[in-house]
Amino acid sequence: MRTTIEMKDEHRAALLELAARRRLKGFSALVEDAVESYLKADAARAARRRKALALKGTLSRAEGERLRKEAAALRNSWR
Fold first, then answer.
1. What angle do CA 31, 33, 35 make, to 5 degrees?
2. Any idea where the domains of the chain sit in the sequence?
3. Cα–Cα distance between 26 and 10 in angstroms, integer?
4. Which of 4, 18, 50, 77 is the most buried (most CB within 10 A)?
5. Distances (CA, A) of 23 to 10, 18, 37
6. pTM tops 0.70
7. What mean pLDDT do residues 52-75 have?
8. Whole-number Å distance between alpha carbons of 15 and 21
9. Residues 41-60 as b or e (16 or more Cβ within 10 Å = b)
10. Rounded distance between C-alpha atoms, residue 12 and residue 10, angstroms
11. For residues 43 and 41, what is the distance between their CA atoms, to the nearest angstrom?
12. pLDDT tier at 17 (50, 70, 90 boundaries)?
């Protein structure tokens, strides 16, 4: 499928340079790879988010407070 996208001149130049180094005629394959990579990463982020949200409420109030205090103590020790 063909489409039109807007990009900065320097991005276009960099893509053309990279395509030339890879002996590609244009940079469509590079854009396709980038879009595929972005979509996979976004799906992975969404899966991690769902997994984290599924844990909501699994700690008791006391466990949560203890974890918060321990994390704060660790952060303070980094400074």
1. 65
2. 9-78
3. 16
4. 18
5. 20, 9, 21
6. no
7. 93
8. 10
9. eeeeeeeeeeeeeeeeeeee
10. 5
11. 5
12. very high
Tokens 């002996």 belong to residue: 23
How far apart are the C-alpha atoms of 43 and 8, rounded to whole Å?
26
CA dist 74 and 38 (Å) reads 33
| DSSP result, 6-50 | ---HHHHHHHHHHHHHTT-SSSHHHHHHHHHHHHHHHHHHHHHHH
Q: Which residue has tokens 């466990």?
A: 63
Both tokens of residue 21?
């180094």
| Confidence (pLDDT) at 79 | 67
